[in-house]
Design goal:
Layout lengths: L13 H5 L6 H28 L1 H4 L17 H22 L1 H19 L7 H21 L5 H29 L7 H4 L4 H27 L9 H18 L5 H6 L2 H19 L2
Length: 281
């Protein structure tokens, strides 16, 4: 279980942030509780996937150091841990709201299908993982009582596809450079030249930036022109992050982000500016 992967669960806070809600202590506590509960659920899913992918992970240069692949967790202990994590997670989600527990059950079901079969079907494997991002937003929207906008859903979709495609590019490079088959679908994705994959990644970056620009013009610009300051920040951050992924194609996206002080500074600056616009009205 990689704790960095828990950062994805911060998406639960996103609907409340963009809705400009008043951050009462009760709301913050509920969102934190939902995030922790979902993180336990996601950890259980990772362990399930690690059990199913044991033979593949042992061949992977990085995944072979995971708890299950390395032998640090026995299969019996892993199963017990999965049971405990699922019990605690669903108990907390059910106490918060029955719909949150339903979304958690859908997430678990989709990932079970993914682990057992769908990860062997190219494109479907990516679509299932994208649904995981949606479910995080849905739980956040449910807890905060916020209706998700199409802009937010589309932007998260583009980001999710981009991050997942980065992983597939890494798999293809391992296959082409070292002959390692680290994923059942790598032969399918390897049919695409790396140049085309890189081009697709650039298209996704451009599409995301355009979607962000349209959102500012339609929903935010009328409230505060200071929001325009985020445009060069986002452009520079996207360009720098893309360059980093080319330099370090096998490094996890979150490690790239947190390991670069300029990217961290740009993200923090964006949050501050956007928060001032949303909450300074």
């Amino acid at each position: 279980m990689n704790c960095l992967q828990w950062l994805k669960n911060l998406l639960i806070f996103v609907p409340a942030f963009f809705a400009g809600l008043h951050w009462k202590p009760q709301l913050i506590l509920e969102l934190l509780t939902a995030t922790l509960a979902f993180s336990l659920l996601a950890s259980a899913v990772y362990l399930i996937n690690d059990l199913r992918d044991l033979q593949w992970d042992k061949l992977h240069p990085k995944k072979r150091h995971r708890l299950v692949a390395s032998g640090a967790f026995s299969k019996r202990f892993t199963l017990i841990t999965i049971g405990v994590l699922l019990t605690v997670s669903f108990s907390v989600l059910a106490m918060m709201h029955y719909k949150a527990a339903i979304f958690g059950a859908i997430y678990l079901s989709l990932n079970l299908l993914y682990s057992m079969y769908l990860k062997r079907v190219a494109l479907l494997d990516i679509m299932i993982l994208i649904m995981g991002y949606y479910i995080r937003l849905l739980i956040g929207g449910q807890v905060a009582n916020v209706v998700l906008s199409m802009w937010l859903l589309s932007l998260v979709t583009l980001i999710a596809i981009y991050l997942l495609l980065l992983k597939r590019r890494s798999d293809v490079l391992y296959f082409q450079e070292e002959g390692l088959v680290v994923r059942p679908t790598v032969h399918v994705y390897a049919r695409l030249p790396i140049r085309q994959i890189n081009l697709l990644l650039l298209v996704l970056i451009g599409s995301g930036y355009v979607a962000y620009l349209l959102h500012l013009i339609r929903d935010q610009l009328q409230h505060n022109y200071w929001i325009l300051l985020t445009l060069p920040l986002v452009a520079f951050a996207l360009a720098r992050f893309d360059r980093k992924t080319v330099q370090f194609p096998h490094k996890e996206a979150f490690k790239l982000l947190l390991g670069d002080r300029w990217l961290v500074l740009l993200c923090v600056s964006w949050i501050i500016i956007f928060a001032c616009v949303l909450y300074g009205r």
